[in-house]
Amino acid sequence: MLSNFEEWNKLVQKFKNKSFANKNVCHAFEKEFTNLSVKLLQDENAADVASMWCTLETVKETKTVKDAYEEAYAYLEYAVDRMNINRWLYIRLLLNTDIE
Predict the structure, then answer these.
(1) Which end of the chain is more exposed for a tag (fewer CB within 10 A), N or C?
(2) DSSP per-residue string spanning 2-42
(3) Using an 8 Å Cβ cutoff, are 4 and 80 in contact?
(4) C-alpha distances in Å from residue 33, one per residue of 17, 47, 57
(5) What number is the average pLDDT over the span 24-29?
(6) pTM over the 0.85 mark
(7) With contact defined as beta carbons under 8 Å apart, do 56 and 22 qualify?
(8) 39-95 tens-digit pLDDT
(9) Around Cβ 40, how many Cβ atoms within 10 Å?
(10) What are the CA-CA distances from residue 28 to residues 20, 36, 54, 75 (Å)?
């Protein structure tokens, strides 16, 4: 279940005070987010997944990889105690920003 506070909070705490200007930090954050997502999405209701949505305009406004990862982390920190499929999708889209 995506609303697992303890699991998301561990991820938030692990990357607290990290610089997303460092590509290795970006890769590590994305990998940890993906691994946790795979674990928690197994219990997600199919109807919730089918109805997920996200406004792409807000994702398009992100200018750099650093900005995308900083925004993804900040949003995860904000939503850690109330994560749902739509919030997860927004973070996932931010993390899909290309890393050169």
Answers:
(1) C
(2) TT-HHHHHHHHHHTTT--TTSHHHHHHHHHHHHHHHHHHHT
(3) no
(4) 17, 22, 22
(5) 93
(6) no
(7) no
(8) 888 877 777 777 777 777 767 777 788 888 999 999 999 999 888 888 898 899 888
(9) 17
(10) 10, 12, 24, 17
